[in-house]
Write a structure and sequence with these properties.
By secondary structure, this protein is an alpha+beta fold. It has one domain: Thrombin, subunit H (Beta Barrel), CATH 2.40.10.220. It has 2 helices and 8 strands. The radius of gyration is 16 Å and the shape is globular.
């Protein structure tokens, strides 16, 4: 779970990342339009991040905070270093809305600061039920919550 103090710390880190990305983008663009397939929108919310354990026998759950969201993907920060192609799922609960699950494949993961990593994933599925948790029944495994 992300405390209010950690939420403020993460938002500060995310704002720094956004400022750095904007400066780099304007320097590299040289007047060119953004060539991204899908435009990223800032999106800050606490989330649960699910992933398979290294031995593929458990589904692990860690706390995270989203950075941005687009039609093609999403980014979040957590205390875990992911590898390219890892399947991940975010569980997002917004007040007055059904829980949303976003499943994707990791495209990058880099250290940000203070023990946090930024992870970007290509979106595979967005739904109101867990896609990754559905694998529990196929593999006869139980979810494990880690900090």
């Amino acid at each position: 779970m992300i405390t209010e103090h950690n939420k403020q710390l993460l938002d500060s880190l995310l704002n720094e990342l956004d400022c750095l990305a904007a400066r780099q983008s304007s320097q590299e663009a040289g007047g060119k339009a953004d060539e991204r397939r899908c435009r990223r929108q800032p999106f800050r919310v606490n989330s649960k991040v699910r992933l398979f354990s290294p031995d593929q026998h458990e589904i692990l759950e860690i706390a995270g905070r989203t950075r941005n969201l687009s039609r093609g993907g999403f980014a979040f920060v957590s205390r875990r270093l992911f590898t390219i192609q890892d399947p991940v799922e975010l569980e997002i609960a917004l007040p007055g809305r059904p829980i949303t699950y976003i499943t994707g494949a990791v495209r990058f993961c880099r250290y940000v600061a203070k023990g946090y990593y930024e992870t970007g994933a290509e979106m595979i599925v967005m739904a109101h039920r867990s896609h990754l948790a559905g694998q529990i029944h196929k593999l006869s495994i139980a979810p494990v919550i880690i900090s």
